[in-house]
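tool=predict chain=A
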Amino acid sequence: MDQAQTGGSAFAHTPVLSAEVLTALQPQPGGRYIDGTVGGGGHAAALLQNIQPGGRLLGIDADPAAIQAARSHLAARFDVIPPEAYTLCHGYFDEIGDLARTHGFEGVAGILFDLGVSSYQLDTPERGFAFSAGGPLDMRLDPTRGPTVADLLQRLSEQELADIIYRYGEERYSRRIARRIVEKRRRQPLTTTAELAELVRHAVAGRSSTPQHRRRSQIHPATRTFQALRIAVNRELERLAAALPQAVALLRPGGRIAVISFHSLEDRIVKQFFRAESGYGGSEALPIPVRLHIVTKKPVVPGEAELQANPRSRSAKLRVAERVAEADE
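tool=predict ok
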């Protein structure tokens, strides 16, 4: 686990599928790579050590705390990673095209996206991602800009809230939860994660009679609602859909893109994008330009040893594709 001090708290993040990422991206000395979600710098450090001498890496993250942590983490490895080998910049991964061009990272050998939230973000109450502590209803990956979850809960209509909770959380009681949120805010705005978690728990109380819900009741009743609101406030799925074509355009022929996702909505976007870019679904009448060859026919998942060491890796899926030369290249 990588740790760096970030404003009094430790940014701790265990990079998931680290060995598998190295196998997928095949880092070589002198190569140029982009880590679009640098986090605490765990994957970045592994890549940088494998591309020396002469290799360079661009690390991007929406969370300023992650950038600070990655900088400390990489600086501590100055004996094998020279400071001129990496550039870290603050931004969302759907800004990857502009950021890469600004810093001279075009025609790169590999790009990594490790989606989702870090252990630090989940375990820091003031970030508002977890319902186990009474932090503010924030959940922004970049706490320097954009509306918070509290803002969404106060502003959106009951129907809009129900749609978000159902679409992004796949929560069957979304309408009931949205109705309770609107009833609550008429009296007093929701401001803390503990308040929201308790509201959701009451909203679904007594609804565990079906076998399907009894299976799901092993997780906290608010889990799906919190996931949905986090996805919505950060526009995670829209950003992913926008980032993937930009990333492919930055790869040189033979370069690879690797994406680690943590829930089915993300994984579906990656899977469908890779298939479309590999020509799946095209025809002689309507040919699809082929830019990718799919490397992983099925997603790579953590092995038993990693699951034991890091239970939060249990839902991780790694998909990999390789850039091919287009007909006119």
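The radius of gyration is 21 Å. Residues 1-9 have pLDDT under 50 and may be disordered.
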